[in-house]
Design goal:
- Belongs to the IUNH family.
- The protein has 397 residues and is an alpha/beta fold.
- It has a single domain, classed as Alpha-Beta Complex (Inosine-uridine Nucleoside N-ribohydrolase, Chain A), CATH 3.90.245.
- 38% of the residues lie in helices and 12% in strands.
- It contains 14 helices and 9 strands.
- It has a 9-stranded mixed beta sheet, sandwiched between helices.
- It is globular and about 60 Å long.
- The two termini are 24 Å apart.
- It binds beta-D-ribofuranose and calcium ion.
Length: 397
């Protein structure tokens, strides 16, 4: 099939329980979030890349391939297929730019999707096709290609060059893991980023006043690769930050879980798998951080912002989120390593002008408010559309 006319996005992620749900949003968010299955796709997901984060990159790659298969995402016809609706998949960096790798088994289990049931296996024919679909190297005895950001960067170069030459709309990058791959793209091909990227929407960071979750002041994605985050925040392209201050509002509560377990969309297998995602995540968030009403499904916010930015307006004034200067602490031996320091009163901002998004300027839009019930309406609309897709493919229960 030809590509949809939704907003073109690329998802860079580290699945991860909340990344798994972000991927559902990226594939199936409808233009009208409460509109059910009859509405056209809001987004045109061009591809997915993974990075080391919640688990080592081989695991996050396997997880992404298994999730895309579960959701029934279309396969690209060949490694440089830019025309059909196929979703490309690449394995990115296995290490941060300048720090030792670290993952988060206490939250996501050893393989990144602990406790999740019902996913197709890595060795299955469908998943293996997807694992290799965007790689030119012949399929070998291994179940996964060698982890390397090189193939991803070469592909991004070809894709962005193609889109710029054809005058296609700029692509938005949504990043829900450490920012290593995105920083490598910015360092490798700055001209292509300037010409071909609309904005970078990240889940990451904890504004001053919000506790860190993996450092005293640091959120996990930024802490894992602060140098990469520093590059991304200071590149002259709009950045939108969904940090813990706002993602902790996105609690998937008991009533939502019960609605999921009621299988209203008619696809029992899909609902049960997603329920296992939420349940494991709820348990680890309870034991690790004391969240008792449900887990904060952080990563979906970054995708939801691209679909419906109005969900993040101030509920009292209706004003859109504000733009500030954000800087990242990169010093290895600092207690504040990985913190996102926000200049709320523009005291250090040297280049406040509207058109400058780079270093010294107001370089990021910082999300603060969320219409959480609309977010979960969007989730159930995505579920409905995914169930329809699986029915068409004949894979649903
Ligand atoms: C972030 O870290 C991971 O646990 C989640 O996937 C999310 O991207 C939250 O700090
Ligand atoms: Ca993530």
């Amino acid at each position: 099939m030809a590509r949809s006319d939704g907003k073109p996005i690329w998802l860079d992620c580290d699945p991860g329980h909340d990344d798994a749900i972000a991927l559902l949003f990226a594939l199936f968010a409808p233009q009208n979030c409460t509109g059910g299955s009859n509405f056209a796709a809001a987004l045109d997901l061009l591809g997915v890349s993974v990075v080391a984060g919640n688990a080592p990159v081989a695991a996050t790659y396997a997880n992404a391939a298994r999730l895309l298969t579960l959701y029934g995402a279309a396969l690209p016809k060949h490694s440089r297929d830019f025309e059909s609706d196929g979703v490309h998949l690449f394995c990115g960096s296995e290490v941060p730019l300048n720090k030792l790798p670290r993952s988060d088994p206490d939250i996501h289990g050893e393989d990144g999707l602990g406790g999740v049931t019902g996913l197709p296996s890595l060795g299955s024919e469908q998943v293996q096709k997807r694992v290799w679909a965007s790689y030119d190297v012949p399929q070998q005895r291994h179940l996964l290609p060698r982890s390397s950001p090189g193939e991803l960067l070469v592909f991004w170069h070809a894709l962005l060059t193609h889109r710029i030459k054809k005058g296609l709309p700029k692509m938005t990058i949504v990043a829900t893991g450490p920012l290593t791959n995105v920083a490598l793209l910015m360092r490798g091909f700055p001209d292509l980023v300037e010409q071909g990227i609309e904005e970078v929407v990240i889940m990451g960071g904890a504004p001053p006043g919000t506790r860190g979750n993996r450092g005293p002041l640091a959120e996990f994605n930024i802490l894992v690769d602060p140098e990469a985050a520093d590059i991304v925040f200071n590149f002259d392209v709009p950045v939108v930050m969904a940090g813990l201050n706002v993602t902790h509002q996105a609690i998937f509560g008991r009533s939502h879980l019960e609605r999921l377990q009621a299988h209203q969309c008619g696809d029992q297998a899909l609902c049960d798998t997603l329920a296992s995602v939420v349940t494991f995540f709820a348990d680890t968030y309870k034991s690790e951080f004391g969240f008792t009403s449900g887990p904060p499904v952080h990563d979906v916010l970054a995708v939801a912002y691209v679909v419906a930015p109005e969900l993040f307006n101030c509920p009292t004034t209706g004003a859109p989120p504000k733009r500030y200067q954000v800087q990242v602490e990169t010093a290895a031996h600092s207690l504040a390593m990985g913190s996102t320091v926000i200049d709320f009163y523009a005291k250090t901002c040297q280049r406040p002008e509207e058109e400058w998004w780079g270093r010294g300027g107001r370089n990021a839009i910082v999300l603060e408010h969320l219409d959480v019930e609309k977010l979960w309406d969007m989730f159930f609309a995505c579920l409905e559309r995914c169930a329809q897709r699986r029915k068409q493919l004949g894979v649903s229960s």
